[in-house]
Fold each of these.
Amino acid sequence: MQRDHREQLNLSWQANADAWTAAVREQRIESRRLVTDTAILQAVLALAPSRVLDVGCGEGWLCRGLAARGIESVGVDASQPLIEVARAADSPRARYRVCGYAELASQAAQLGRFDVLVCNFAL
């Protein structure tokens, strides 16, 4: 049952990746534009990290924001289409990997060490 739910969720993200990417990049979600994106970025920056893991990174907005400030980031997400658009944005200090929660738990050591782990707007 849980596997079916995960598969349905992943299929949903695959089907909606382009629409989600456009909504985020064009700042169509008012709560994110006015409050939450800035609050999340400021909360991470307040910790003065040199390396951040963004779990459920989606199209990579946070990794790009951190990279623009000289912070190395690794974004992981179970959605291949979202990781592809994140990679296409080509931030040199940001790397992306297709990785669901189960894989993350078993492969975390391969990603390296991080000062901060962020999981925002992720299911």
Amino acid sequence: FKHMSPDVMAQIGTLWDPGHNYIVPFMWGTHGVTYNRELVLETYPEAPIGSMDMVFDPRHMKELARCGVSFLDSPTDIIPMAMAYLGLDPNSTNKADYQKAEGMLKKIRPYIKTFDNFAWQRMSQREFCVAVTWGPDGLQAMSQAEEANTGVVLDFFLPPAPMFWVDSWVIPGDAKNVENAHLFMNYMMRPEVASNDSNYSWYATANKTAIPMIDEAITSSPAVYPTAAQIGTMWTTAVIPPKIERVRTRTWTNFKAAN
């Protein structure tokens, strides 16, 4: 664990693994909005760029629908983001909170062109002007647009209090090859391995020792490595009770069907 980022370890310790006995972090990140500034302003000059009103307020979504808006196809990401936007607990166990989120989401549903985790790949062709994406995918979208040399310039912004997620390694309780599992995780935690993973995927590594070995285009991007101030405002999702998980699933189904 000596190579692990204190910020990442602190987030893991908040709700998931307080004693740091089970989880070894791998990659981490957050969510935000990737957008084509020129196309957005050409379509809707009053667009509130930099505010989550841009994607959660139906007044603005109605206008931006003319140039194409995409959302992640992920209830465990979008619903907590929507609840945070409403000032509700993203980890709420109160059914009424999910009903409030559903009511808000249904109002913007007619203006969402698609639910697609890879819509950012088509932003350089101007198929979408706005996409809710994972942070690192925002950076990839910006780079892809630059390489396409079509004149499309993309940008990215985070919510004021972003959600933190982490991909991690754990060993199942009934694992038969525990020694090999530890060897694998030790290998993945080598700084030279972690840096290679990050340079390949463009996702942030939890390995602080590896950062100097990562391409500066990745480490300097707030889409991948948010500022210390932004990290300080991040929150994590919790494992919610099965009964509430069913409520969240129903909320998502009703949202997507409310076109």
Amino acid sequence: PRLTLILFQTSLVGISQNRRATLLNSNLS
């Protein structure tokens, strides 16, 4: 099904963005 594929991709994008945000926060602090 295509819906699960879209959800999987969006979750991967969200994880990558969260990881990038935590890296930026650790660099700033």
Amino acid sequence: MAFSGKYQLIKNEGILEHLVANGMPVEQAQKVEDDNQDLEISVNGDDIKISSRGPLQNLKLNQETTATGPDGKVFKSTASLNGDVLTVVSSFSSHEWTRIYSVSGSELTVTSRSSKSGVPDGKRIYKRI
């Protein structure tokens, strides 16, 4: 599977603006933007694991899963795969948060999108290590 592997963050595009517009305090959003955390993705059949320094996400393609975020809030996520694009949609009480993982060669782009009006997309771009 094209996604399986370890990735190193090489740049952010609009992450700070995305997080702040989505309601995260500026100081916390700045810490997230400045954190150059690696990302690891494992795909085994319909089972997907996405790990970084945050909580491990265990997902099953096309099935809703429940997780608890670092802030203690419970949310539900559904993952779907279409070629080299993995989409994870998480539902919160106030909005949906979509992450689009797209692989091109040795580069992985993660686009973060909110259903809240006026929130710009943010991107994290990684290289396979």
